[in-house]
Structure formats: structure tokens, C-alpha cells
Amino acid sequence: MTIIQGDATTSSDRSPVEEPSDGATAFDQLIDKVRAEFDTQFTWDYERGRDGLNRLYEKAKRSQWNVSDDLDWSIDVDPERMVRLQAEATGIPAGFPARSLLDVKGSPVASWNDDQWVDFAVNSQCASLSQFLHGEQGALLCTARLVESVPWIEAKYYGSTQVVDEARHVEAFARYLDEKMPTSYPINENLKSLLDSVLSDERWDLVYLGMQVVIEGLALAAFGMMLGTTQEPLLKNLLRYVMSDEARHVAFGILSLQEIYADLSADDFRLRQEFAFEACNQMRRRTLNAELWPSYGISNEEIEALLPDQNSQQKFQQLLFSKIVPNCKKLGLLDHRDGWLRERFQEMNIIQFEDWENTAEALDLDGPVADRELDDAANRASFDPDALQGVEVIDTPTH
Ligand SMILES: [Fe+2]
Ligand SMILES: [Fe+2]
User: Considering only 7-16, 214-223, 248-257, 387-396, which range has the smallest mean pLDDT?
Assistant: First the structure.
């Protein structure tokens, strides 16, 4: 499978890539570089005094799994049936929340019938899985960076296990998309821009904040929503395995940043608040299904113009921040400087998640690992259709 950036019609059967005419090779076309200057740090201090990180490292070593052996790839997946079954089981119609645009006067999708929404839902599932895939590659690169740049031996040890985890996640999502789904999509431009800014920053603690807290927190919530709604057994199991790793990753960020922030000057801490806000804002600006609309002949501008009144889409978007806000609170980022970040999160309508369980507390650092269900405690905010309480669900149109 190859995914050419900037091409919304990318599909898995495009390989081998055609030779471009400008002298670049086909391989060059698939490479995207980010320039960075940072310190790679040796440490000669091999003492392991950070108890939380040590326990997390032990848990990570005991929790390894194999995409090839532990998931049943013989399961046959029919994407259309998957979407219809999901709608039946959850009571949430195919294509939701975009489907709520049906009801909006002048909406370009006002005449769509159920089959069209099922087609849209299949593509929407491909787009979400594609963003998971690209985000996982971002996590792989960021964690490799952390192993080089963090000065603590315990964090280098633990980070090395996360590098393996993230490679496994890239492998799992790539294989699922390639073997089970009809198409895949390029990376969302807001996600790419956040990854670029995290990877080009020389301050290693910002890699933690951008990747381990914001991007991983968002991913955990999104995985939880998909796990809570899909009825497809292979995808369900894949997500459960991935999420049991991700809970450790967010905890790694929280444990490390708590120590760093304890010694930070007020000005430096303020910069971290602003960085967290900017990263969240960038993720919020992603139009839902932005990768999809153009292939249906509808521009993202047309959709964005309809969104201010779209309660369903907004609630759905807000839920994605349900993991990030409690973790920011745990780090003290919300209330520093007279609650500057609290106010920003109030404006974004996501402050209501501040007392949801934070990931570091929910993860049992010493718990057994053989049964993945045990780590579900760390993902308790996994999507429950009741979380969309009050959100208008539109029935199948009769026309
Ligand atoms: Fe991951
Ligand atoms: Fe991760």
C-alpha cells in the first residue's frame, strides 16, 4: 500500500507508483522530510531512581504482542455490512455525525439516501483508520526522538519499548487498511502541521507535551469511540490491543512532565500552557471528514459554513478532548497564571472533561498483562453511545 500525500483518490491498488517526470524517483515521491536541530544526549548516570518510569518499563516489557500472531487475520471483513451492523447495534445511523447535515436548509447532502450514507460511512471509516495510521507513524518518529534527546536513563529505557509499540501499531493499521478496507487517505493537514512543529522543536519536553499528551490523548478518545461502536471482531480486537499500549504511552508523558514542570520557571510554564492550547486548537480546527467531502464534489468550505449550528458535530468533536483535559489538569497546566488555559478550554467548550479520570491514575502500573480486558480500566472513557446524550440523531430519510 502506498499513500500519496495531497491526492484524495489514493487507493491501495495504486502501487507500483508511476515514475515522475521531474527527475525525482518514485521512492522520493513518498518521502517527506522535516528538518530538525536538537541535542542527542548520552547519560553516564545509570542509576534508576524514577520508580514510576521503572514500573512502567517493566509493565511494557511484559505486555508485548505480535500483530501477526495475536490477531485473527483470517476474519473476512465486508465494510458495507460492517457499517450497517454498527448502525443497527448502536442505533446511530450510518454516516453520523455528518448525517445531521441532512436537516440543514440548503445542505448539499439534503437529498442523499441511505445507500449514499452507507457509502459515505465506509469511506469515513477508511479516512479515520488512515489518520490513525499516519498518527501512529508520527508517534513512532516522536518516540524515537525522545529516546535520543531525553537525559534520563529510565525514560530512554521506557521510550525504547514505546518505539516498538508504535511500529507495531503502524503495522496493524496499515495491514487492516490494505487487506480489509477498500481505500486509504493522505494525512490530514492539521495533524501533519502539528507533527511537523513537534518534530522540528529542539525542546524535548515539548515532544512529550505535543505527542504523549495531546496527540496520544486525542487518539485514545478516538480509538475508544471506534471500539465502543464497531461490531467487527478483528477491528475490535486490534483496537483493544492498541489501546492497552496507548494507555502506557500517555502515562509516560504525565509521569515525565510532572517531574520537569516541578522545576520550570513561571515564564517557561506559561509557554507550555500556550503550546498545549495551540496544539488542541489545531486539532479542533480539523473539519470532520475533511478528507472525504471533495471526493463527493462538496468543498470543505461549504461544510464549514454549515457547522456553527451543528450541535451533533460539535459534541462529537468535543468528546475527542475527553482524555486531554484531565491530563492537562493533572499537570497543573489548567490553573497556572490565573487559569489561563482553563479559560481557553471553557471557550472551546471542553472544560467539562476536567474531572474525568486521568490516564496516569487509571493505569495499573503493576497489573497483570495477559488479559487485555484488565487494561480497559485505563480506557474507561471509551465511547459509550450515551456520551452523545442530547445529540440529535437523524433518521433515515424517506426520499
Ligand atoms: Fe500508537
Ligand atoms: Fe502511542
Answer: 387-396
Residue appearing with cell numbers 498483562: 369
Give, rounded to a whole angstrom, the gap between the first and last alpha carbons of the chain.
38
Amino acid in the structure at residue 2: T
Rounded to the nearest whole angstrom, what is the distance from the C-alpha of residue 268 to the centroid of ligand 1? 28
Question: What's the gap in Å between 166 CA and the centre of ligand 1?
Answer: 4
Q: How far is the CA of 246 from the centre of ligand 1 (A)?
A: 6
**Alpha-carbon dihedral of residues 71, 72, 74, 80, nearest 10 degrees?**
-80
Is the pLDDT at 383 greater than 80? The verdict is: no
219 CA to middle of ligand 2, Å?
A: 8
Q: Which region holds residue 138: left if phi is over 0, alpha if psi is between -120 and 50, else beta? A: alpha
pTM for the model stands at 0.88
pLDDT of residue 3: 81
Peptide bond into 16 cis (omega under 30): yes
Closest CA to 394 of 86, 79, 95: 95
Q: How far is the CA of 244 from the centre of ligand 1 (A)?
A: 10
Tens of pLDDT along 155-175? Answer: 999 999 999 999 999 999 999
Is 164:107 a contact under the CB 8 Å cutoff? no
Residues 97/313, Cβ–Cβ less than 8 Å: yes
Give the distance (Å) from ligand 1 centre to CA of residue 162: 8
- On the question of pLDDT at 80 being above 70, the answer is yes
List the chain domain ranges: 50-387
Instruction: For residue 111, count CB atoms less than 10 angstroms from its CB and return exposed for 0-12, middle for 13-18, buried for 19 or more.
Output: exposed
Task: Decide: residue 315, CB within 10 A, 0-12 exposed, 13-18 middle, 19+ buried.
Answer: middle
pLDDT tens column, 167-205: 999 999 999 999 999 999 999 988 999 999 999 999 999
Residue 188 backbone class (left: φ over 0; alpha: ψ -120 to 50; beta: rest):
beta
| Grid cell at residue 96 | 453520523
8 Å CB contact between 81 and 57: no
Ligand nearest to the CA of 133: 1
Query: Which homologous superfamily is 50-387 in?
Result: Ribonucleotide Reductase, subunit A (1.10.620.20)
- The helix/strand/coil state of 263 is coil
Give the Å distance between the CA of 236 and the centre of ligand 1: 15
Judged by DSSP in three states, 101 sits in: helix
